[in-house]
Amino acid sequence: MQTTLMGIIITEAKKSDCFSKENVMRKYSYLEHICDIRLKVEADSIEELFEGALDGMNSIIMGGPVENTAEDIRKRICVESVDFTCLLIDFLSEVLLLTHSNYNIFCSMDIESLSATRIEAVLHGFPVEGFDVDIKAVTYHEAEVLKNEEGNYESVIVFDI
Amino acid sequence: MVKITDMRKKAPYMWEIEKGFRSDMNVPARIFATREMLDDVLKDRSIEQLVNVATLRGIQSAAIVMPDVHEGYGFPIGGVAATLWPSGVISPGGIGYDINCGVRLVKSNLELSDVKSRIKLLGAALYTCIPSGVGKGGDILLSESKLDEVLKHGARKMVQKGYGVEADIEHTESHGCLENADPAMVSHHAKKRGEDQLGTMGAGNHFVEVGVVEEIYDHECAKAFGLFENQITVLIHTGSRGLGHQVATDYIKIMMGKMRDYGIVVPDRELACAPFDSPEGQNYFAAMAAAANFAWANRQAIMHSVRLAWRDIFGGQLEDLELLYDVAHNIAKIETHIIEGQPKKVIVHRKGATRAFGPGNPEVPLDYRDVGQPVIIPGSMGTASFVLAGANRSMELSFGSSCHGAGRQMSRSEAKRRVDATSIINELEHRGIHVQAGSLKGVAEEAPEAYKDVEEVVNVVHQVGIAKKVARLRPLMVIKG
Hints:
The structure holds two protein chains of two kinds. Chain A is of the alpha+beta class. In chain A, 22% of the residues lie in helices and 39% in strands. Chain A contains two helices and ten strands. Chain A has helices at residues 46-62, 84-102; strands at residues 2-5, 8-12, 26-31, 37-43, 73-80, 104-114, 118-127, 137-138, 146-147, 153-160. Chain A is globular. By secondary structure, chain B is an alpha+beta fold. Helices cover 33% and strands 26% of the residues of chain B. In chain B, a hairpin with a 2-residue loop joins strand 12 and strand 13 (342-351). Chain A binds chain B through residues 9, 11, 30, 32-37, 63, 81-82, 85-86, 90, 93, 97, 100-101, 103, 130-134, 136-143, 158, 160-161, and chain B through 44, 70-74, 77, 93, 96-98, 133-136, 189, 192-193, 202-204, 242, 245-246, 248-249, 252-253, 256-257, 260, 268-270, 272, 408-414, 441.
């Protein structure tokens, strides 16, 4: 589905099949950017926002929502940052590093603890042969975790490709 | 929101937004463009981003963008910003994640008629011997200690190992090595990403292109550069791969956590920075230099692969392919420029901008010194590329910098919506341009219509006097990841 907001085309992306919990909402969509990828993530909780951002990043890397497969790789990560916004970006950067270093896609996670400056989680993933898009980096540009009028959390994330 | 009425014409093709436009600006914002280009530039956020750059601590003269400007993240692409050494800031976002992304132009002694019947053979050979595509590793596997030597010595290390000749070093910006590089400042993670990526092209807008010199504009410069009509050339465009991306990621995070301590506030988090003379600034500069050296080594290794493939097909010696020049377009350098009549040492950030030093500058190789540094401007896939010579007006107006390419005018997603990759490949083939690509999606994203008219861009810097046109190269074969 495509809608237009202030001249920006928004493509609604469906939730990844990796996601299976009930009664929670998370979604991501793509906004226009002249050379990179601008992703908007929205969720009804901070935890879901992190998971939605992970879904969105994986969909860029693999060229579409990542299908649920037999997950046989687990990786524990701990990321610390100065605030929620930086934590979201630094978390994605950390996952991107693991993705590129080991040719793994991490399509789900168990968040063990999450505060404004620290996340501890166990990532679940699987090996892949290659990637569809080369994300060079997750940038802080335009990122701002905030609560919108619907009471959901959202942020824009620009990926350098 | 910046409007056209906020810009004042200061000289032909030169526009400025006054320092008072926003209270946090330290210098004006300067745009090199035609009046028609300005309308397009204002369609994205590049000028807002330029105004943000003008707020950086220690920035001198003006925040500048070239006519190939387009929206980036933090800094606009096509941007130049010089901050006062040593206390002004260094901002990793002002260099970009692909540290020392750049281009290298190789010239042959063969003409079009010599290669025409075997050009597809050459394309297939290059596609096979130069690993390309997302995250792809190559045949050169480096232990951490060997990688450290590459990070320390750059292209020179590759030449020592047999991947080139001494003349290649002479014809590389900074001799392919920034002396302040310190491998110890590069994280283990970054090194891990680089361990198998030397000699690889990557994906996106990176390419290897075989071309022919179609027109000479300046015969004196062309003679100095060794260019002649109908000559076959090879253009290589790539950077520091995952290693450079990780260096930038690591240090932007570090600086993000330290800005408050230095009392620095930036209007966009991606402009995260630290005083150059702070520990964080110094560590980043040493790591950036190491990543820049990796990029020069990478292009040197790819050039060696090109030479091997060339010799297999056309015979002769490896040295028959000579390096014309290699320039960085994502880098920070310490340079001395005249500011308000006084020579001052500055940290010049070039993000999507090429150094363009004029005649007589000691940084220009001896054999080019009378005419100026070669400035290599790749066009989009299927359009001409240009060789220019740096001119001394660049020292007055743009901290010795010029444009770096055509500049995007259409997003990748729009290009994919509008362009059918197979049709593009067929159309280019019909025009005598063979495309060898690993991804149809990549071809659509890089379609010629996704970019500005490179000739218009080049004409602006030529008219301003930043660099002068020397030759136009027509592509014959494009190899992409």
